[in-house]
Amino acid sequence: MRTRFRAAVTVAAVLLLAVTVAGSCGAWHWLLDLAGHFRVYWLVAAAMGLGIAARRPRSLAFVCCCLAAAGNAWALLPFWLPPPGVGPQAASAADDVGSEARPPLTLILANVHRPNPDKSPAVSYLRDRCPDVVVLLEVDAAWLAHLSSLDEIYPHRIVEPRDDNFGIALLSRWPLSARRVATFGGTPFPSIDTTVEFRDARVRLLATHPHPPLTSAYAAMQLAQLGAIADVAAASTGSCIAAGDFNATPWSLPYRLFVSRSGLRDTALGRGVQPTWNARLPAPRIPIDHVFASPDVAVVRRTVGPDIGSDHFPVEATLVIPP
Q1: CA gyration radius, the chain
Q2: Which alpha helices (DSSP H) does the chain contain, by range?
Q3: Which of the residues in the chain have pLDDT under 50?
Q4: How far is it, in rounded angstroms, from Cα 87 to Cα 52?
Q5: Same domain for 306 and 203
Q6: 27 and 174 fall within a common domain
Q7: This prediction's pTM
Q8: Which domain holds residue 109?
Q9: How far is CA 5 from CA 1, 8, 10, 56, 61, in A?
Q10: pLDDT digit string (tens) for 63-93?
Q11: 201 and 268: one domain?
Q12: What CATH number is given to the structural domain containing 178?
């Protein structure tokens, strides 16, 4: 019995190391990239494996668990370390946050889940939080009808409802200029590109929702859409924010390529891993909803909101935009 148990632990440890390595090989095949979404759980499994195999530190199981723990911990580390330094404009603006000189911009991103029959929790949540800007995904005509109760709060809006899961809407308390709904990367899924006129500042806001990588074709579309939006962000001359359900975790190839091409920073860095999906299950939950900002934007607060009846938790961000 003991021999069988050791053999089972060894097999599990080898498989754990294999999925850990596979998660870094998404450029070879889209299926390998899926393994990277669950690094938090691989780390927990590796820690448990180390506890089981600790009596035999020279065993294959112990070595595999050590390597798996180190690889996953390294990938997760940026979300627990202090975030990278911001530009001098952002640092100066952050010093003034909360004062009349520099009030912050509050933003909520929420995938509301199109078929959700009870829309009142999401609407009540937005009314209670009352952020400056709201980005909503999976919006259809029924959702727009319920959101009309917020018209007095959000007089400025860009909406593109759809009968599938790719309708999108942006609600704002502040004027919007250079407004457009566009498709990127040759995909049919709409994104919003606009400028928020926030007090004496202007910030470009890109909102998007690519298709989840369920097949090789969809994975290619996801890469193309996020890549094209990253290029738009990189070409922006002023402050820029990108928000959306990317259907990609921070350890996936689409996310990594977006960050490298856009020059934007994840507002979650230094604030821990903040899973947003699946809200209907206790586990696994992974972070696929993101808010990015250019280095001149200071991040005051970034967290995950409460259950609003969707399969996603909302993301709340408080940002200081330089003048």
Answers
A1: 21
A2: 2-22, 30-34, 39-53, 60-76, 88-95, 120-129, 141-147, 216-235, 253-262
A3: 90-91, 98-99
A4: 46
A5: yes
A6: no
A7: 0.91
A8: 88-320
A9: 6, 5, 9, 13, 12
A10: 999 999 999 999 999 999 987 765 555 445 5
A11: yes
A12: 3.60.10.10
